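So, could you explain this one?
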Amino acid sequence: MLDLDRLRALNAVSEHGSVSAAAETLGITTSAVSQQIAKLERETRSRLLERAGRGVRLTDAAHLLVRHAEQILALVTEAEADLEAQRGCVVGGLSIGAFATVARGLMPSVLRTVAAQHPQLTVQLHECDPKVAVPLVQRGDFDLAVVQDWANSPLPLPEGVQRQHLADDAAEIALPAGHPMAGRAALALRELAAAHWIGAPPGDICHAWLADTLRRAGIEPKVAHYASEYPTQLALVAAGLGAAVLPRLGRGPLPPGVVAVPVRPALVRHIYAVWRGESARRPAVQAMVAALRGGVDTVMGAPAGHSGAVS
């Protein structure tokens, strides 16, 4: 009989490309992964890994086994979820990914609430970009993730991944306090055609959105500086070096020398919780989604489109 832990080790090597990366994902040593693979080779009487330069590659037999392993592990996950649902107990562990502003502005209160309401549930938070988090949810490395997209830049979800809308987060334009438009009640993007921008690095979802949004407004983006974190962007705005798009969630107090001005029409990003379909019945996943929904109500007020349970 094939051992699940050994199949899981081989599947992790296949997904992550190396023994060391598989070990990091599984939370065990590289030696332990190698031992699991060696036992699986003896068990199947097949060579599963071959040396390829400084790394390894899967043999044909390994690829065949991985295809079955993916189905077997998915069925095991579904069975575990069904058993949890039958017991109705919020127990075990959850691994959650969340992008930076949610990790800062929402998750501390949500995690505190979950810890108080469900003391037998252990939750581990990982701050990461939605483009990274969604594949990790699909592979099962994360049980849940909080992700974002923008009205004109939807985030595609792979097959088998479900989502729950949590909130709509309106963004404003951060301007230096001395900017001619800093005292305005609202402004249109086209009025900033000559502005220099401070934005996220290329490859980030927010970078692509900013470029697309400005071009739709007839503005060719002039990005003067790149920074991943909003506090860094705001420090550059305060120095008079450009303007930045600033969502409300997780922003914290504005630094001296920065003014936030609303935009008309509004710039809105959508915030979702996502999880694998086979995990939907897990009481732990349902409890976390409920806590997230309650958290956005507290932090932002009742979100638009707020409805529905995990299904």
About this structure: Residues 302-309 have pLDDT under 50 and may be disordered. The radius of gyration is 23 Å.
